[in-house]
Give the backbone structure.
Amino acid sequence: MKEKYCENYPLWAVFLTNLVSIGIYLIGIFIILQIGIIWLVLYLIYILFLEIKLMRGHCVDCYYYGKTCAFGRGRISSLFFKKGNSKNFCNRKITWKDLIPDFLVSLIPVIIGIVLLIINFSFLVLLWVVLLIILTSAGNAFVRGKIACKYCKQRKIGCPAEKLFKKKID
Ligand code: SF4
């Protein structure tokens, strides 16, 4: 069957993918806020650092630089950073170790949430922890498998992250 690729993703796709990412951030923010504002500020700085690192270090080399990618970052990146070299995107080697910083965005609040539940059980915190785990696992899998990677032109050209996951998208 002929594969379909998006030149520019529709806005509803960008909305859905960001609903998952922003949902993860907001739940993380709520959980970390329980232990103090200082930790929340550090968490927000960490998220900002990762977003800038992604857009400056990866999106500039991506096919979707200046276009509407599934996450909308291709356009944002082109507003702040100069276009890179598309060869860098394909040639980059990604290992599981490289993904640890991204996993920490969810893992840190999940661990904090579990500790809070042990110290002082709350149904609200339990709900947020469960939701965070669902969004990070099933939510991300849905977004990548059904929306983002499935119609991604960069995947056809070459994507080290997609190779790492060795996921069947069709
Ligand atoms: S295949 Fe997936 S991970 Fe790779 S660039 Fe496309 S959307 Fe991003």
Summary: The longest helix spans residues 123-148. The chain has one domain: 11-161.
